[in-house]
Amino acid sequence: MKILTGNDLASGDVVWWTGESWSRHVEDSVDVNEHGEAIARAEEGARRVNVPYVIEAQATPEGPRPAHIKDRIRALGPTIRPDLTLKPADPDAGNWVI
Amino acid sequence: MYQYDTYDQSAVDARVEEFRDQVARRLSGALSEDQFKPLRLMNGLYLQLHAYMLRVAVPYGTLSGQQMHMLAHIARKYDRGYGHFTTRQNIQYNWIKLDEAPDILAELATVEMHAIQTSGNCIRNISSDQYAGAAADEVADPRPWAELLRQWSSFHPEFSYLPRKFKICVIASAEDRAAMRLHDIGIELVKRDGVLGGRIFAGGGMGRTPMIAPEIKDFVAADDLLSYLEAALRVYNRHGRRDNIYKARIKILIHEIGAKEYKRQVEEEFAHVKTLGIDPPLAEFDRIAAFFAPPAWEQGLSDDLDLSDPDFRLWVDQNVIAHQTPGYAIANISLKPIGGIPGDASADQIDLMADLATRYSFDELRVTHAQNIVLPHVKKADLYTIWQALDEAGLATANLDLISDIIACPGLDYCSLANARSIPLAQKIGQRFADPERQRDLGELKLKISGCINACGHHHAGHIGILGVDRKGTENYQLLFGGSGAEDVSLAKIIGPGFSEDGVVDAIEKATDVYKALRTDGERFVDTYRRVGMDPFKEAIYG
């Protein structure tokens, strides 16, 4: 599947396209198929996202998992500071990244 | 320390307000990201993996206690309670919000700090010896010259859009503690017949094409230094490859036309520049130099130390360096605790270091290119009290220049350019060699890790270097031996096929075993490697 990501313009937070808006959580992502570039252009033009781009992901029972480690680290947070990740209380979160 | 005059302050204040307007226009949509990106980069603001990242300049690595407190305040108020000290003697914050960036710059300006020219194709922060003004072996204090270069290069209209970024380093000792010859221009201040001047090296650097800067001028009188640098930059600016980012650094230009031809053109340009009268009058240099006058040393201090506490003794042996003044010492604060993140410090730790500087080091701190902090002027009699305070805050790791004193770039945990993580590897290596006696037995061993070919972690200059690469979506690490950023400068060589994260830690351990078996008295790891070559190491690691 293909999912769309970028950064919130003001906060810089990593965000993911849910089909109608942007979420901080990658599991909310939807498959954008071949529409990713068009959605990216429209959303960037409306200043709802900064530098959006399409990435490959795998569908899993817990939601989409980015194919590349760089995007998995973007999705969760730095692997060396679990306290600063989106799932600080989840000891398995690191396994999801690696 | 240098203090801003009204010109400096008004220039920095004006830039804050200019950037505030630019941010407002970006948020309103008046500027696109393509239009805004070069403007934010001119103010040190990157968009990294998780958020905006702000790189704050620390000119030649020198800070006052008040400035250090401000860095802690920024970490606490605008970031997530910590900062990351870099290999360019700067500090980076990883979780900055765009709409708060102008306020941060405004707060920094109140203590004479900024983020100008910490990115972009301009002359970056001037780097220098972290022991400047304190080292026993310096021929002069390099900081007034670094400050002169800072003023010359700040907002220099001709050099604001160079072919690529440009890094300058000034040292004043034969011992190179600042990787001087791995800069675009390196200056070693020397004295000839009692006259101060500089040996000039040009065309060094790391990145994807590492090169050691050749000497292009054996002596330029200090009075002519700015004119000579102006000429050197002009020739680069004229011929640098703006058409190809990978060939745009001065090192490529000098490599392609040859150092001799580059020098010939610089000399020609120098003859012209000298007629322009850009070198400052002596009175102006004296004004700058006066800010760096030695502190009021106490006379008659004892050099004796009570070393009965073994942990304190270990720290003194490893982290404390001789000072040029009797009764004083240079104290290195390692930001490399075992299992920690190289270069990171919490806001509380930054505040503590600021307090110690104010109380015990004439209000001065230094940031080192090895991502540590220095208290440059402490009385030996105060060392135990300082160590106790550092120890309580987790800042008393006794590992300066040992295998766990690792330079590591932020890597894939933070950096959008990285291919592999650097920090977890540094943590694993530190843990493998955690035993202080084992580290000390291995002696000086400079280990440097970069998460990509851009080499922010200086892997080319490591006695042991590690380069993270992306191999089909998996992190892989190449191992290099034999580099040095010091006066015995050399570039490390890849030893063979890469490793997994755990594999590279095992390989390093095998390499240290080979070193221990083959070393002769007084030989460091890199000395043994240079003497015996790569084969015994490869055989142990791959055999």
From TrEMBL, chain A:
<dbReference type="Pfam" id="PF11011">
    <property type="entry name" value="DUF2849"/>
</dbReference>
<dbReference type="InterPro" id="IPR021270">
    <property type="entry name" value="DUF2849"/>
</dbReference>
<protein>
    <recommendedName>
        <fullName>DUF2849 domain-containing protein</fullName>
    </recommendedName>
</protein>
Automatic annotation (TrEMBL), chain B:
<dbReference type="GO" id="GO:0051539">
    <property type="term" value="F:4 iron, 4 sulfur cluster binding"/>
</dbReference>
<dbReference type="Pfam" id="PF01077">
    <property type="entry name" value="NIR_SIR"/>
</dbReference>
<keyword id="KW-0408">Iron</keyword>
<keyword id="KW-0479">Metal-binding</keyword>
<dbReference type="InterPro" id="IPR045854">
    <property type="entry name" value="NO2/SO3_Rdtase_4Fe4S_sf"/>
</dbReference>
<dbReference type="GO" id="GO:0004783">
    <property type="term" value="F:sulfite reductase (NADPH) activity"/>
</dbReference>
<feature type="domain" description="Nitrite/sulphite reductase 4Fe-4S">
    <location>
        <begin position="119"/>
        <end position="272"/>
    </location>
</feature>
<keyword id="KW-0004">4Fe-4S</keyword>
<feature type="domain" description="Nitrite/sulphite reductase 4Fe-4S">
    <location>
        <begin position="404"/>
        <end position="541"/>
    </location>
</feature>
<dbReference type="GO" id="GO:0020037">
    <property type="term" value="F:heme binding"/>
</dbReference>
<protein>
    <submittedName>
        <fullName>Sulfite reductase (NADPH) hemoprotein beta-component</fullName>
        <ecNumber>1.8.1.2</ecNumber>
    </submittedName>
</protein>
<dbReference type="GO" id="GO:0050311">
    <property type="term" value="F:sulfite reductase (ferredoxin) activity"/>
</dbReference>
<dbReference type="GO" id="GO:0009337">
    <property type="term" value="C:sulfite reductase complex (NADPH)"/>
</dbReference>
<dbReference type="GO" id="GO:0000103">
    <property type="term" value="P:sulfate assimilation"/>
</dbReference>
<dbReference type="InterPro" id="IPR036136">
    <property type="entry name" value="Nit/Sulf_reduc_fer-like_dom_sf"/>
</dbReference>
<keyword id="KW-0411">Iron-sulfur</keyword>
<dbReference type="Pfam" id="PF03460">
    <property type="entry name" value="NIR_SIR_ferr"/>
</dbReference>
<feature type="domain" description="Nitrite/Sulfite reductase ferredoxin-like">
    <location>
        <begin position="52"/>
        <end position="109"/>
    </location>
</feature>
<feature type="domain" description="Nitrite/Sulfite reductase ferredoxin-like">
    <location>
        <begin position="341"/>
        <end position="393"/>
    </location>
</feature>
<dbReference type="InterPro" id="IPR045169">
    <property type="entry name" value="NO2/SO3_Rdtase_4Fe4S_prot"/>
</dbReference>
<dbReference type="InterPro" id="IPR006067">
    <property type="entry name" value="NO2/SO3_Rdtase_4Fe4S_dom"/>
</dbReference>
<dbReference type="GO" id="GO:0046872">
    <property type="term" value="F:metal ion binding"/>
</dbReference>
